[in-house]
Amino acid sequence: MQVRGKGFYSLTPVNEALENLLSGLRVIGEEEVLLEEALGRVLAHDVVAERDNPPFDRAAMDGFAVRGENTFGASQANPIYFRIIGEVLTGQSFNGEVREFEAVRITTGAPLPRGADAVVMLEHVNELGGEIEVIKAVPPGKNVSLRGEDYKKGEVLLKRGRVLNPQEIAILASLGLRRVKVFRRPRVGIISTGDEIKEPGEDLKEGQVYDTNSFALAALCSATGAETSRLGVVRDEYKAMKHAIEAGLNYDVLLISGATSVGKRDVVPEIVRELGEVVVHGVAMRPGEPTGFGYIGDTLVFMLPGYPVASIVAFETFVRPALQVMQGLKPAMPYPAIKARLRRKIPSELGRRDFVRVRVERSEEGFEVEPIRTSGSGIVSSLVRADGFVIVPENTEGIEKGEVVEVGLFRSLDE
Amino acid sequence: MQVRGKGFYSLTPVNEALENLLSGLRVIGEEEVLLEEALGRVLAHDVVAERDNPPFDRAAMDGFAVRGENTFGASQANPIYFRIIGEVLTGQSFNGEVREFEAVRITTGAPLPRGADAVVMLEHVNELGGEIEVIKAVPPGKNVSLRGEDYKKGEVLLKRGRVLNPQEIAILASLGLRRVKVFRRPRVGIISTGDEIKEPGEDLKEGQVYDTNSFALAALCSATGAETSRLGVVRDEYKAMKHAIEAGLNYDVLLISGATSVGKRDVVPEIVRELGEVVVHGVAMRPGEPTGFGYIGDTLVFMLPGYPVASIVAFETFVRPALQVMQGLKPAMPYPAIKARLRRKIPSELGRRDFVRVRVERSEEGFEVEPIRTSGSGIVSSLVRADGFVIVPENTEGIEKGEVVEVGLFRSLDE
């Protein structure tokens, strides 16, 4: 299919393109990382307890370990007396047995001495030289953490695919694990294209603009857990571009923004087709129509629009879910959703998915949403003026004023 | 106030402790970072546009630059003819002027030649040697991005305090900024205490358990944007602990978990009082009652409970908001909230705030929530069995079965 200079023959619906993309993807590998580096990673195997936790019955309070039934009937008026036969501190163990009406001084976390089955709190004890008065009864088991009460040997504590948040890190530490096997992060190479594109920090000549896409895409990739390298700005020229793409094939994923549409200088799709396979090129969405993807060897190559806003929308729609699946995550948008009433009609076209940047304001009845008027997807400032976005689905010609829509929020409305 | 071994004289309400804490905090400093490292950071100054964007009128489509009014009346049946006087490619500029019925071939992003005010798309043009037939009229301004249409020189694009998400990174890049000034991340040192606590990976003797707190706290700090160092496990012993605390005073924040309550071996509050000031010790919350904080010199010292669950709850309640304020963020929990119906009564005490771990299940009417039965805050597994938590506020003795509560979710319910 030769489309350069002639417009797209046909556009693939977003869902069809996405299913096509994700059905070809799986986790890309495993690696072992230190527990300190495991935050946010995805577990590559089930974690089974190798021992009970706690590994022994232990005191849950500072106090005295006793036989609980010996305290029955104890009160302020009728204290019961116990002989102190020793002490066990946290981290130690007691070499003896607690018999009837004997007590061992114990600190929180210390192993319960043999024979004892409860701990009387310090507050309910008066110490009198070698013995104590207990002024409150404690049933057996009171103020004691039983061995295995947290988890038992052999128990599956975390399943493969679990995201390692701080809670999961805590349980892995409690198991004594120093390292953990997780899915590998996708390595992403990012190429910006365009003869007019310069690196931030350089001087601009007339007709030139700064590279924004590779920075925005790198940030989006990092926020999705990928390892990212900016591979620089490449000219819209066949040889230079082919060389850059070939040099990027050691990455799991290659993002190329610009030179991906159907103009004369849009050399990328042709090169991808030559070196590998273009699976989808041209998607029924706005912005982002020139989006496509394919494979060169094992490298998944995304062709993203050159306009910054379109490029970000294409990332959100296709690249993010792909990166998530490749590291064992469920595809999901990171933007919290709220409901809001539309202040102005959003026109759209049947068969096309539109991503509309919006401002959100609080009103007396809840939230109201105002589409941002812009003349195109080159308007970077619309992204930071917007509080979020509304998706107009394919099966409608737009959304009427007054309707309630779902808004994905770029940031907290309190900021 | 000497409380060791005697229980807390009084407990400070959570809100009072938190206001006390936050009112003493401000951003801790600024630093300049590379744009690639700015994701998630907080802007320390207003960002003002130093030039217009786009910096010149430019083509928004591939086509021919013309005077729009010359195309009026053009149609398939009545094409209008234009003489091609040259070409301007993206990144270049055109050294001449477009006069009546003249056209310059132009690519998307290239500067509009002087004299032209519109671009006819390739699709609406037939090329005939040195001239073109235009078959559709374009009004002036059509397919053109005007200079300054994105933003104008002098415009405040991002305000101090703005969180730098990918969209903000994009606009900073478009401004040509290579570095950006952001608030410094708090540096946090983390000490675990306990004679029974061993590093994961070591062998356990009887009576010993693995350090979970410092790993969980380090993960929580990282997820909050702090720079974190685990300073190891310290014995519950006055001299060792004092030495460890003194060695940790080069951090902005010191987290000490364990040895912070009122037992005989709870040496931390006394040492903090000796070296500096204890502001709050003992908070009316469960779990987490032994929580406290104070200052030694400029270092904010948190005394956190030794039990893992209590330590995490104390982090969420006090440490997270403090770390957020110190780097210029609004205090906020990272857990999305849902409403759910309570399946079982949650008892509580008037005047105390309870954090109750819960499981969430979908029912026909929405979500239902089941408190997890545990015997205490040493039960690490309860954190990974829980889907989230319910807060029982101070002004109630509990929440009745059937009531609708707000649940903070630890993770997506789809996982």
Descriptive report:
The structure is a homodimer of 415-residue chains. By secondary structure, chain A is α/β, with parallel strands linked by helices. The first copy, chain A, folds into four domains: 151 residues, MoaB/Mog-like domain (Molybdenum Cofactor Biosythetic Enzyme, Chain A, 3-Layer(aba) Sandwich), CATH 3.40.980.10; 54 residues, Alpha-Beta Complex (Molybdopterin biosynthesis moea protein, domain 2); 88 residues, Molybdopterin biosynthesis moea protein, domain 3 (Molybdopterin biosynthesis moeA protein, domain 3, Beta Complex); 73 residues, MoeA, C-terminal, domain IV (Beta-clip, Beta Barrel). Helices cover 17% and strands 31% of the residues of chain A. The first copy, chain A, is built from seven helices and 28 strands. In chain A, the strands form eight sheets. In chain A, strands 7-4-6-5-9-8 form a six-stranded mixed beta sheet, with no helix packed on it. The first copy, chain A, is elongated, with a radius of gyration of 32 Å. Chain A starts with 13 loop residues before the first helix and ends in a 6-residue tail after the last strand. The relative contact order of chain A is 0.13. The N terminus of chain A is likely disordered. The interface between A and B is large, with 101 and 101 residues.
What's a concise summary of this model?
With 415 residues, the first copy, chain A, is an alpha/beta fold.
Features:
homodimer; 415 residues; alpha/beta; Molybdenum Cofactor Biosythetic Enzyme, Chain A; Molybdopterin biosynthesis moea protein, domain 2; Molybdopterin biosynthesis moeA protein, domain 3; six-stranded mixed sheet; 7 helices; 28 strands; elongated; disordered N terminus
